[in-house]
Write a structure and sequence with these properties.
With about 350 residues, the chain is α/β, with parallel strands linked by helices. It folds into 2 domains: about 65-200, no CATH class; about 230-360, Hypothetical Protein Ychn, Chain: A (3-Layer(aba) Sandwich), CATH 3.40.1260.10. Helix content is about 40%, strand content about 15%. It contains 12 helices and 9 strands. It has helices at about 1-25, 40-45, 65-80, 105-120, 130-140, 165-185, 185-190, 245-260, 285-295, 300-310, 320-325, 340-350; strands spanning about 85-90, 95-100, 145-150, 155-160, 230-235, 270-275, 315, 335-340, 355-360. Strand 5 (about 230-235), helix 8 (about 245-260) and strand 6 form a beta-alpha-beta unit. Bound molecules: protoporphyrin IX containing FE (HEM). Protoporphyrin IX containing FE binds near residues 99, 127, 155 and 170.
């Protein structure tokens, strides 16, 4: 009997401790509150940790148990966008909106959506953070006042801010929502710019390091910026018309220009080119080239020279060279003859160069 009482006491203590843990740090952003007092979605969210959404800690929606449910509601609203009516009145400090549907199920989802979005704004629990406008809004939630009132068929919202900049964000957001209502998924797939920070047009093409070849545009805010210390090995076997510049070689010029000026900052890159196969004879000096192809000089020499001046290592495969009827002496002075393309490629990769084949 005594044992039984101890067991019951222990069990009660464990349950109390568990309940208080949920109340203080409930998984997800519910934290014991939420529209409808644990209404749709929230109740279900309580028992699930963020990891169970397949996105471990640190993922965009880590700790956000409501994300899944909100997503389902967005999808539903976007699918039914044609059955939604919306008017937006701009106020000096924000907007007044009315969003309704004659279909009761859709009207109910609009109400659910707005309640949860208001909750997200109040609790700074962001969503759609890839979209610049939404990311910006969630940076300023402390300055947003959002009040909603259910109507028979939907919701009337008054959203304002004392901060004039935030008021413009609210107005831009209201336009985005009107876009969702008008165009559904087509609009939802678009980015919405932050007012005043519309994407600057990419610069005109330029040649930051290799003149006249391989023009690039500067994309200072784009993903995958050039990384300093890059080592790149171009395995060039692409042929072409003997009297024209080899297009693979021009790509090498573009790579240099990208590292020198395509990103936000110039990044030093060590580039090596190994010529073999159909590209072997690109590196012949003017006399040897003219004699072999009956041209007036070698149309690749000017660019090869610029690449050399910019620090690019140029290697031709000795085996290919000789088998195609030339000698190391026939090669332009700034190109080195390697024992073979094989050894050059293997050695350079062992030295940490990333391998980039260029056969087409
Ligand atoms: C047809 C589809 C949609 C409708 C009818 C709708 C409706 C609404 C309404 C009425 C508001 C209150 C603010 C206002 O009226 O301007 C609102 C706010 C919000 N909506 Fe939606 N929405 C839709 C789609 C989406 C989507 C796809 C997302 C994100 C993925 C989204 C995220 C938000 C957020 C974050 C807020 C609160 C932020 C704020 O108002 O500043 N909505 N939505």
């Amino acid at each position: 009997m005594k044992r039984h009482t101890t067991y019951l006491l222990t069990l009660t203590l464990v349950m109390l401790a568990t309940a208080s843990t949920f109340a203080q740090n409930g998984p997800g952003f519910g934290r014991g509150r939420g529209p409808g007092g644990g209404g749709p979605g929230f109740g279900r969210g309580m028992g699930r940790g963020a990891q169970q959404h397949g996105q471990g800690p640190g993922g965009e929606h880590a700790g956000d148990d409501r994300h899944e449910e909100d997503h389902v509601v967005f999808q539903f609203l976007l699918e039914n966008h044609k059955k939604i009516k919306r008017t937006v009145k701009e106020l000096p400090n924000g907007v007044e909106t009315l969003t309704e549907s004659d279909v009761p199920e859709i009207a109910a989802k609009i109400k659910e959506h707005v309640e949860w979005m208001e909750y997200r704004v109040e609790n700074t629990n962001p969503i759609r953070m890839r979209d610049p406008l939404f990311a910006e809004i969630f940076k300023h939630t402390d300055k947003i006042k959002m009040v909603h009132e259910d109507t028979d068929n939907g919701v009337k919202v008054i959203e304002t801010s004392d901060d004039p900049y935030v008021a413009t964000l609210i107005q831009a957001h209201a336009k985005a929502v009107s876009g969702f209502v008008e165009r559904g998924f087509a609009e939802a797939m678009k980015n919405h710019p932050v007012p005043g920070k519309e994407m600057t047009k990419p610069s005109e093409p330029s040649h930051p390091i290799i003149a006249n070849y391989g023009a690039v545009v500067k994309l200072a805010n784009a993903a995958q910026q050039p990384r300093p210390g890059t080592k790149l090995l171009v395995d060039l076997t692409k042929g072409g018309d003997a009297d024209k510049l080899n297009s693979g070689l021009e790509k090498v010029a573009r790579y240099l220009n990208i590292y020198a000026g395509g990103g936000a900052e110039p990044a030093d890159a060590q580039i090596a080119v190994v010529f073999h196969g159909d590209a072997t004879q690109l590196v012949l000096n003017a006399d040897a080239y003219s004699a072999m192809f009956k041209t007036e000089g070698n149309p690749n020499l000017d660019l090869l020279h610029q690449l050399h001046e910019a620090g690019v290592e140029l290697y031709v495969c000795g085996q290919s060279l000789i088998s195609k009827g030339s000698q190391p002496d026939d090669v332009a002075v700034f190109v080195d003859t390697a024992v073979s393309a094989l050894t050059a490629v293997v050695n350079l990769q062992a030295d940490g160069y990333a391998y980039l084949p260029m056969a087409k």
